[in-house]
Design goal:
Blueprint lengths: L5 E7 L6 H9 L5 E8 L5 H11 L4 E6 L4 H11 L5 E5 L4 E2 L3 H9 L8 E10 L7 E2 L9 H4 L11 E3 H7 L11 H12 L1 E13 L11 H14 L2 H16 L5 H12 L4 H10 L7 H12 L7
Parallel strand pairs: 1-2, 1-4, 2-3, 6-9
Antiparallel strand pairs: 4-8, 5-9, 6-7, 6-8
Length: 307
């Protein structure tokens, strides 16, 4: 691979239905990019499709054929391998990137201090297989701080673009079994060690289908149904485990206020009275008042209590 401006990191697994369209949309960006793919042990024709596209795009696509370790660890394996570029962009295997996706990310990032970890992300168009947008992922309403991002996965991984400083920070060894969503982990590393940028414009067709790890409901009713589904799946408990692991890993880097708040979150789970005191005084919030209220209700009822 050449020492170009951007390297796209993509973890594939049984993606034969969509991955060719996605790779073509990446290769057709206005920015000249290279693509590093780690296949996570696909059983279908995914690898064959990638190898066909390697011939079409010559030395711009590198493929690592790996064993199945799960998409979270697979992405971090890509991060550990990646080097030699100014920026690194994460990608799902089943979306479609619009031409100005990386142009816009770089425009934003180039205005910032490259000596600190930087992370950029934006919203996306929600689509089904017809690729007709019916909505977008959540847009930023309230200013982003650690008090928000530690409890809300707000910067979608498929839109994340980072600089070398952040990539270096993410190469450290961590317990992948404790990470529920890798994009949330990356966001929180960036926000305590550097700077996070969010663009409300959309540059990706983000497919919604049953194989998505995390989906978005259509409209307010769809949003509510999706949250009920996540509660039943105990997603909030998995999030609590990740928050605890983040605290253990980065507590020495947290400022006094953030450290106090996280310790409050962890310790208050011991009793109902403590949880009630927590929700009355906590600085933690989500992007809307309704989402913040739902978080507090779940916390009060033990939804974030690790047994």
């Amino acid at each position: 691979m050449k020492n170009n401006l951007i390297l796209v990191l993509l973890s594939s697994y049984n993606g034969e239905k969509y991955i060719e369209d996605q790779i073509i949309s990446i290769m057709n960006q206005n920015q000249f990019v290279d693509l590093l793919i780690r296949d996570d042990g696909s059983k279908d024709n995914t690898v064959a499709i990638i190898k066909k596209l390697q011939k079409k795009y010559h030395d711009r696509i590198k493929l690592i054929e790996g064993t199945n370790i799960g998409y979270i660890k697979s992405f971090f394996e890509l991060i550990k391998i990646a080097q030699g570029y100014k920026y690194y962009s994460l990608s799902d295997q089943d979306d479609i990137w619009l031409p100005r996706k990386l142009d816009t990310a770089i425009e934003w990032l180039e205005k910032e201090n490259q000596n600190i970890p930087l992370l950029y992300a934006s919203s996306s168009y929600l689509v089904h297989d017809d690729l007709v947008p019916y909505g977008t992922t959540q847009k930023m309403i309230t200013h982003l701080t650690f008090y928000n991002t530690i409890i809300q996965n707000f910067l979608p991984g498929h839109n994340q673009v980072m600089n070398q400083m952040l990539l270096n920070e993410l190469k450290k060894d961590i317990d992948y079994s404790k990470i529920y969503v890798h994009d949330s982990w990356i966001t929180n590393v960036a926000i305590i060690k550097g700077k996070v940028l969010f663009n409300n414009e959309s540059f990706v067709y983000y497919r919604q289908h049953q194989s998505n790890e995390v989906g978005f409901g259509k409209g307010k009713i769809g949003w509510f149904k999706e949250r009920i589904k996540r509660i039943k799946n105990k997603d909030n408990l998995k999030y609590a485990i990740q928050i605890n692991e983040f605290y253990k890993t980065y507590k020495s880097y947290l400022n006094k206020d953030y450290l106090t708040e996280l310790e409050f979150f962890i310790e208050s789970n011991k009793s109902l009275l403590d949880r009630f005191k927590f929700i009355c005084t906590t600085k933690l919030y989500r992007q809307s008042k309704m989402q913040t209220m739902l978080f507090k209700i779940l916390y009060l009822t033990g939804g974030y209590k690790i047994n």
